[in-house]
Amino acid sequence: MKHPKLIVLSAPSGAGKTTVAHAILKQHQNIIFSISATTRTRRNSEVEGKDYYFLTTEEFLQKIKENAFVEYQKIYDDYYGSLKQEVENALQNGYSVLFDIDVEGALNIKKTYSDDAILIFIAPPNINEITRRLIRRKTEGEEKLRKRLDRIPMEMKQQKKFDYIVMNDDLQKAIHEVTKILINHNITNEHQ
């Protein structure tokens, strides 16, 4: 039986990590998505309990007091965190867990789970491409968009702390490279 792992995808906003994550989940049935909790406003396309658990700030702060998170961060005035109970349940049932989280959360997971965590940084082709993707996405107002763009240099500097860096200048190639990493770690033997 394969030893379950924590697979952490991180990237600046707009680099494509969520798209890569969805493709990996669709192809590999032995991997479960870690649904993050957040205090940010739900986007029209998002579903409670599928994309995120949407909490009030008070609910989130209570869960911090209860030590209910594997990791959590405050980003752009909102909290994001991975619920410990969900992660532990998946691992105990033999499933690897895929995270789609920010770089600081990823590094915190590595501190906690060390050898059981695989950190993969999804690198954008360039800053102009990220800017174009974020504008085209139309999910943030101008102020939030500026905050996301201002955060990119810090996120890019963190990539050297990751186990792998996958360039997303071609989506299918990026998905294939992440799949190869999973195969090399014996997480899955499924091929695209």
SSE blueprint:
Elements: E1 6-10, H1 17-27, E2 31-33, E3 36-38, E4 52-54, H2 57-65, E5 69-75, E6 78-83, H3 84-92, E7 96-100, H4 103-113, E8 117-123, H5 127-137, H6 142-158, E9 164-167, H7 171-184
Parallel strand pairs: 1-7, 1-8, 2-7, 3-4, 8-9
Antiparallel strand pairs: 3-6, 5-6
Helix pairs in contact: 1-7
Strand percent estimate: 15-25%
CATH architecture classification: 3-Layer(aba) Sandwich
Determine the CATH superfamily: P-loop containing nucleotide triphosphate hydrolases
The largest sheet has its strands arranged as: 2-7-1-8-9
Shape: globular
Low-confidence stretches: none
Number of domains: 1
* CATH top-level class: Alpha Beta
Q: If helices are DSSP runs of H or I spanning 4 or more residues, what is the number of helices?
A: 7
What about the largest sheet?
A: 5 strands, parallel
Rounded to an integer in angstroms, the radius of gyration calculated over CA atoms is 16 Å
Helix and strand succession? EHEEEHEEHEHEHHEH
Average pLDDT across residues?
89
Give the CATH topology: Rossmann fold
Class based on secondary structure composition and strand pairing: alpha/beta
Total strands: the figure is: 9
The N- to C-terminal Cα distance equals 21 Å
Classify the helix fraction into a percent range.
40-55%
Give keywords.
single chain, 192 residues, alpha/beta, Rossmann fold, five-stranded parallel β-sheet, four-stranded mixed β-sheet, 7 helices
